[in-house]
Design goal:
By secondary structure, the chain is an alpha/beta fold. Helix content is about 50%, strand content about 15%. α1 runs antiparallel to α3, α1 crosses α4 and α5 packs across α6. The longest helix has about 35 residues. It is elongated, with a radius of gyration of 18 Å.
Length: about 200
């Protein structure tokens, strides 16, 4: 996790294991456009598999989409804490989401392996960022804002959740969370174009 801060303000950047698993399951089930915000596909690409046989007697793909969206919403709200216990093989916490429970049972091993690889890659990315000082842009954005308005910062915390997404962009979730592609910070101008307006709103 990276943390930038000053008097009254704090910005954190990190990834999320449970959200990585959820992303994998979304893509493997072909739930394009599911969830709010509607994020781009995961990268590297997850191969879609047909789940109609798994879910046909528990509401089908529509039920799976609804259950996944409820889970995703709970993950975003609970972050950085996990929302539901991912406990194989039965995944009891998902007893009220039978379609999602079945997909978890079918794909948890591969989802966990994929998520673990992404977490390892993120750790390498973080180490490289710390070495080259690229995260300093966060402090610069806040300092620029405070110089512009001529006062000290309002108290605020901004949580940035970085995920391996194919599209280099970010999504703002009121009041103080952003989800973004983990590659966005490598494009400082694009990164600023998404984060600066949020900093101006909060600082």
């Amino acid at each position: 996790m990276h943390e930038s801060g000053g008097p009254g303000w704090r910005i954190t950047m990190d990834t999320s294991g449970p959200m990585l698993i959820a992303l994998y399951l979304r893509d493997v089930a072909g739930l394009d456009g599911a969830g709010r915000p509607s994020l781009s596909h995961a990268a590297p690409k997850v191969r879609h598999a047909d789940h109609s046989h798994l879910t046909s007697d528990v509401g089908g793909i529509q039920a799976l989409k609804t259950e996944w969206e409820a889970w995703w919403e709970s993950l975003v709200k609970a972050y950085p804490k996990p929302a539901s216990e991912l406990a194989p093989p039965s995944f009891k916490a998902f007893g009220n989401s039978p379609a999602l429970q079945r997909v978890l049972q079918a794909h948890f091993g591969s989802a966990l392996g994929w998520a673990t690889d992404r977490i390892d890659e993120y750790a390498d990315l973080e180490a490289a960022r710390e070495a080259n000082g690229v995260t300093q842009v966060l402090n610069e954005m806040v300092e620029d804002r405070l110089l512009e308005v001529g006062r000290s910062s309002r108290d605020f915390e901004l949580t940035i959740i970085e995920l391996p997404l194919s599209e280099p962009r970010a999504w703002y979730l009121e009041p103080s969370t952003m989800i973004m592609s983990h590659r966005l910070l490598s494009e400082p101008d694009v990164f600023r174009s998404y984060v600066q307006p949020v900093v101006e709103l909060l600082a």
